[in-house]
Design goal:
The complex is a heterodimer of chains A (259) and B (273).
Chain A: E1 4-15, E2 18-29, E3 33-37, H1 44-52, E4 59-64, E5 67-68, E6 76-79, H2 91-95, H3 97-102, H4 107-119, H5 135-148, E7 153-157, H6 165-182, E8 185-190, H7 193-199, E9 202-207, E10 212-218, H8 233-257
Parallel strand pairs in A: 3-8, 3-9, 6-7, 7-8
Antiparallel strand pairs in A: 1-2, 1-4, 4-5, 9-10
Chain B: E1 9-15, E2 23-26, H1 28-51, H2 60-72, H3 75-107, H4 109-124, H5 131-138, H6 142-166, H7 170-178, H8 183-220, H9 226-235, H10 239-267
Antiparallel strand pairs in B: 1-2
Helix pairs in contact in B: 2-10, 3-4, 3-6, 3-8, 3-9, 4-6, 5-6, 6-8, 8-9, 8-10, 9-10
Classes of the chains: A alpha/beta (259), B mainly alpha (273).
Bound molecules: adenosine-5'-diphosphate (ADP) and magnesium ion (MG).
Chain lengths: 259, 273
């Protein structure tokens, strides 16, 4: 049994009168890829922001490697839903920004950044500017930037939700390939069930109003997974099972959003 | 980096077999040159045939003659030099003070509360009207004009600088915070670069305001300067010389503006295309 990388205990969060999270607990083991799936507005981003230290919970605790967190820290890397690349920096300078904030950039940092850009498939684009890149490429930079600080825990908030369907499928396979290289501990938030099942070792299914964990689903599909995995009956069964769990909530969230 | 060529402008009346549409198509700047030339020719014809009295309107050729004789006598250079010195001094002071004040009020709520009413009030006030007062204070030399230029330019720069810092995207700040940025790093690595286009826009706005400041301040009382030349030409109904002075002001305004646009493309390329 490996130690828990992340332990979130009974996190509760309110925005005004709205209870967004209700006693959410989650443990993630070292090297595990865990997805958090749920309908939009169920508090996924809020949960991730609390773990990142960008938001404080009203109750509960977050520990990384057994230490309680107090605000953002370089032990956690965040991959943002909107890529948030700085438009005045080229791709290389965007990727190295986390290391730059930590102090002087060493030759090792430069080499490491270059290697990461190579890993995410952006070799040769170092001197390009964000506006010259497609959405998929910008998300690769977003990922490389988070990996550059070599975090203990990688937090990803719907990084592929703004991409078109084909690009998204490619990025899912790519992310798996990149993850296999380093086996970082990942908490990946998405509203897409097939994405969650495809990528992860375990899926936490979220319910809304208030946000809470309905069920944990182990995904024991063999790796590496390919596009073909998505047609595997086992895969389909898992997606179906999760869909049934949140179907009611999704309907409600759709009706709610349309008010 | 430009991805697509600038669109060509079709000319309405001309036709040619060379383009797909059968129209003559030119680049934007070529059409602009044609527009200016046509305007000048129209002006020449209008003043020669319709007005025909240089008391009311000088033709382009008369203006050109005035320019040549004024520069041959050395008079023109003295006026231009004086105005240029006044403008550049005032503009430089306003740029430094304006950016500094803008950064101060953007980062300190205390100073913002104290200074904001004065800045907003004085920006809207035609402070150029205080020119005669400044002559009493500072004399008829260049410093009374410099002060007018400073007052006209500084608030435009301050307001734009402050707006630039304030409009920094929360997404960028949060991303940097997430990577452990200190408040100082947030300011230097996010707010400042993100405000640069605004600061440049304020400085660009200041060019026109500063030129107006120089001329009007000189009109109130001066020994030399393009405003002085305009005043004395008007008094003696010498329209060619008046237009000559105005033409030089226009040319320097256009020149400085386009130099500024070049600077913007270099410094803040991400706001283009
Ligand atoms: N800063 C905030 N202030 C007020 N309400 C918020 C804030 N952030 C999120 N919410 C609300 O909390 C709920 C959960 O939001 P979020 O965590 O973004 O959900 P998800 O990421 O699952 O779509 C939503 O109803 C949202 O409107
Ligand atoms: Mg979200």
């Amino acid at each position: 049994m490996t130690a828990d990388k992340l332990e979130a205990r009974a996190l509760t969060k309110h925005f005004g009168d709205l209870e967004v999270l209700h006693e959410v607990s989650a443990n993630i083991r070292e090297g595990e890829f865990v997805a958090l799936v749920g309908p939009s507005g169920c508090g996924k981003t809020t949960f991730l922001r609390i773990v990142a230290g960008l938001e404080t919970a009203d109750g509960g605790a977050v520990e990384v490697d057994g230490r309680a967190i107090s605000g953002p820290g370089r032990d956690r890397g965040f991959v943002f839903q909107s890529d948030s690349l700085l438009p005045w920096r080229n791709i290389f300078d965007n990727t190295i920004v986390g290391l730059e904030l930590a102090g002087r950039i060493s030759a090792e940092d430069l080499a490491r950044t270059r290697k990461l850009l190579d890993l995410v498939g952006l070799k040769g684009f170092e001197n390009y500017f964000p506006r010259q890149l497609s959405g998929g490429m910008r998300q690769r930079v977003n990922l490389a930037r988070a990996l550059a600080i070599d975090p203990e825990l990688l937090l990803m908030d719907e990084p592929f939700s703004a991409l078109d369907a084909q690009t998204r499928e490619i990025m899912q396979v790519e992310l798996q390939r990149i993850w296999e290289e380093g086996r970082k501990t990942v908490l990946f938030v998405t509203h897409q069930i097939d994405e969650a099942v495809f990528l992860s070792d375990r899926v936490l299914v979220f319910a809304r109003r208030p946000g809470r964990i309905l069920e944990e689903v182990e995904i024991d599909l063999p790796r590496p997974r390919t596009i073909a995995t998505k047609r595997d009956p086992k895969f389909v069964t898992l997606v179906d099972h999760i869909w049934k769990l949140i179907e009611h909530d999704v309907r409600e969230s759709v009706l709610f959003e349309h008010h | 980096m430009a991805y697509d060529k600038k669109p060509l402008v079709p000319l309405p009346f001309l036709r040619s077999g060379k383009t797909a549409s059968g129209r003559v198509e030119l680049e934007g700047y070529q059409v602009a040159i044609i527009s200016v030339v046509v305007g000048l020719i129209g002006w020449q014809i209008f003043s020669d045939l319709v007005i025909a009295n240089s008391l009311f309107l000088a033709s382009p050729t008369q203006v050109l003659e005035a320019l040549v004789s004024l520069s041959l006598s050395g008079e023109l250079w003295a006026h231009v030099k004086t105005s240029a010195v006044e403008f550049l001094l005032g503009y430089a002071i306003a740029a430094v003070v304006g950016v500094a004040t803008g950064l101060l009020i953007a980062t300190s709520p205390f100073w913002k509360s104290w200074l904001q009413p004065w800045i907003s009030g004085l920006y809207a006030t035609p402070t150029v009207a205080l020119g005669p007062l400044f002559i009493l204070w500072l004399g008829i030399g260049i410093w009374s004009k410099v002060l007018v230029v400073v007052l006209l330019v500084v608030f435009a720069v301050t307001i734009n600088t402050e707006a630039g810092i304030r409009s920094t995207s929360e997404r960028y700040l949060e991303m940097m915070r997430c990577f452990g940025a200190t408040p100082r790093q947030l300011f230097l690595k996010v707010s400042l670069p993100s405000a640069t286009p605004f600061i440049l826009a304020g400085l660009k706005l200041g060019i026109g305001r500063g030129l107006i400041g120089v001329v009007v301040a000189e009109l109130f009382g001066s020994r030399l300067g393009l405003g002085r030349l305009i005043g004395q030409s008007a008094d003696s109904f010498n329209m060619p010389e008046l237009f000559a002075a105005v033409a030089i002001l226009a040319a320097s305004g256009i020149l400085m503006n386009s130099a500024f646009s070049k600077l913007e493309t270099r410094l803040v390329p991400w706001t283009k295309d």
